[in-house]
Write a structure and sequence with these properties.
Elements: H1 3-26, E1 43-54, E2 57-65, E3 75-81, E4 88-94, E5 101-109, E6 125-132, H2 134-138, E7 145-152, E8 160-161, E9 176-184, E10 189-196, E11 199-205, E12 212-217, E13 227-238, E14 241-251, E15 260-268, E16 273-275, E17 282-284, E18 290-294, E19 303-307, E20 322-323, E21 330-337, E22 340-347, E23 359-371, H3 372-376, E24 383-389, E25 395-400, E26 406-412, E27 417-421, E28 437-441, E29 449-456, E30 459-464, E31 469-474, E32 483-501
Parallel strand pairs: 1-20
Antiparallel strand pairs: 1-2, 2-3, 3-4, 5-6, 6-7, 7-8, 9-10, 10-11, 11-12, 13-14, 14-15, 15-16, 15-17, 18-19, 19-21, 21-22, 23-32, 24-29, 24-32, 25-26, 25-32, 26-27, 27-28, 29-30, 30-31
The chain binds beta-D-fructofuranose.
The site of beta-D-fructofuranose has 12 residues, from strand 1, strand 5, strand 9 and strand 13.
């Protein structure tokens, strides 16, 4: 090689290395980048998909558009975790094809190889998803969404689409999507819970390839401010008794505007779902949890995770390299309140591994305002804050920065209501519905109020009363929040305050 060429090649190589390492240094450190929540390295994400636990690995697939930070032709992105906390992004699992984009769906472990897709004793992982044909949609047809399957024989690393797709054809319903499949042991069959416009349709199958309609549910019950999407059906233990839960996401029509997750409690007999109550219940009252469903193959544990955004503004939030993230994984349980049964959600215990030693304060007397940082030292998000008190007066937790921007999370004692107010949270101008004060009822009747706040650099998740009331909210201050104050105009005593910084997962 002559000297000039050699110099040129070396210089190009070194500058490529430098660009790469500065990219690596900046990655996951950008302004607003969630530090304890999964978000893709770059580009667009919406719903979590195909969540399955298998051979010690948590799989999280997600609606993904690798070419832009706005929604487009959908792929299934893929991330894995060994501990439900730290995530590694993997190569794209499913690409669009001649049948269309890859919309939302689920994944199961086909232990008995009912599908026959397994090989040499290796049980297949089977993904069940919606093929969305954009041409059919453009032409105004009503059957452009169909259900298909793909399988993996290498622990979810690579996926092959089934040659006989689609496996469930559209009977002429414009919104016919988001299959969530589970094994119904009592009758040895698979149950698919499918969102079909304004209701859920249940299908069953012996082999994941041939599907028969079982029943419909919900056209006359629950919230119908928008189309039903991303459902989930599973049983939870209620003191040794099985209680069935049906999750139904709806967009728009959420309790605080836009998209949100509602749930029904009842019974499922392999054919139909019968609800115990007819009132509308929200799994998360905040504006920023949507499309939430649970992992499959987790035994008695049920772990839920949602998309941390809202269709009202998901395409225009002010992030640059990536757009949107997932919530913290949450463990779901049941709780009796009076004569009724509700769902509770709590951050998974695994999250504690990010926690440094908490600062614990007892009997903190708050008159007007108490500066948390004065007792804990410099505040740098992400952090976890746990409070317990007797809710005799109003109370608020105020996150703020030096620019005077703030998010207020509070409890209104008269209305027995939690709220999160982001009207002055900084960058709010990207969409007219973003700024606002959002409310959620206190469902608990307990005399003590316990709540946990998981606060990341651009989101807060409130788990109140052991998770009976949940709220998720995002925010975009012009400089990071570095103050936490507790406010109470009438004065209140906090029995116990626990504050812990959380380590970044990246
Ligand atoms: C919900 C949803 C699903 C659909 C997917 C498309 O957010 O609209 O119903 O499968 O997103 O990306």
């Amino acid at each position: 090689m002559n000297k000039k060429i050699w110099l040129f090649t070396t210089a190009t190589f070194i500058s490529a290395l430098l660009v790469r390492s500065s990219y690596a240094q900046q990655l996951y450190k950008e302004m607003y980048r969630p530090q304890i929540h999964f978000s893709p390295k770059e580009k667009w994400t919406n719903d979590p998909n195909g969540m399955v636990y298998y051979n010690g690995t948590w799989h999280l697939f997600f609606q993904y558009y690798p070419d832009s930070t706005v929604w487009g032709p959908m792929h299934w992105g893929h991330a894995t975790s060994k501990d439900l906390v730290h995530w590694q992004q993997q190569p794209i699992a499913l690409y669009p094809d001649s049948l269309g984009y890859i919309f939302s769906g689920s994944a199961v472990v086909d232990k008995n190889n009912t599908s026959g897709l397994g090989k040499n004793g290796q049980a297949p992982l089977v993904a069940i998803f919606t093929h969305h044909d954009p041409h059919g949609e453009k032409e105004g047809r009503n059957n452009f969404q169909n259900q298909s399957i793909a399988y993996s024989l290498d622990n979810g690393k690579t996926w092959k689409k089934y040659a006989g797709n689609p496996v469930l054809k559209n009977p002429g319903i414009t919104d016919f999507r988001d299959p969530k499949v589970m094994w119904y042991e009592q009758q040895h069959k698979w149950i698919m819970t499918l969102a079909t416009k304004d209701r859920i349709t249940f299908y069953s199958s012996p082999d994941l390839k041939n599907w028969t309609k079982e029943s419909e549910f919900g056209s006359d019950v629950g919230a119908h401010g928008g189309v039903w999407e991303c459902p989930d059906l599973f049983a939870l233990d209620d003191n040794g008794k099985k209680i069935w839960v049906l999750i139904v996401n709806v967009n728009p029509g959420g309790p605080n505007g836009g998209s949100a997750t509602q749930y029904f409690i009842g019974d499922f007999d392999g054919n139909k779902f019968t609800p115990l109550y007819r009132d509308t219940r929200w799994l998360d009252y905040g504006p920023d949890e949507y499309a939430g469903i649970t992992w499959s193959n987790t035994g008695n544990r049920k772990i839920f995770l949602g998309w941390m955004s809202n269709w009202l503004y998901a395409n225009v939030v002010p992030t640059k390299t990536w757009r949107n993230a997932m919530t913290i994984p949450r463990e779901l349980k049941l709780k009796h309140v009076g004569k009724e049964i509700f769902i509770t959600q709590q951050p998974v215990a695994e999250l504690n591994t990010l926690q440094s030693k908490p600062v614990v304060l007892q009997n903190v007397k708050v008159k007007n305002s108490f500066d948390v940082g004065a007792s804990t030292g410099k505040i740098a998000l992400p952090v976890r804050l746990d409070l317990s008190l007797v809710p005799s007066k109003d109370l608020s937790v105020i996150l703020s920065n030096n620019a005077g921007e703030q998010v207020v999370i509070g409890y209104d004692n008269q209305k027995k209501e939690y709220f999160i107010d982001r009207t002055k949270s900084g960058n709010i101008s990207f969409q007219k519905d973003f700024a606002g004060r959002h409310v959620a009822p206190r469902i608990s009747r307990a005399s003590d109020l316990n709540c946990s706040l998981i606060i990341d650099v651009s989101s807060v998740e409130l788990f109140a009363d052991g998770g009976l009331t949940g709220m998720t909210e995002t925010f975009f201050p012009t400089s990071p929040f570095n103050n936490i104050r507790i406010g109470s105009a009438e004065g209140i005593v906090i029995k116990k305050l626990s504050y812990s910084p959380l380590r970044s997962i990246w």
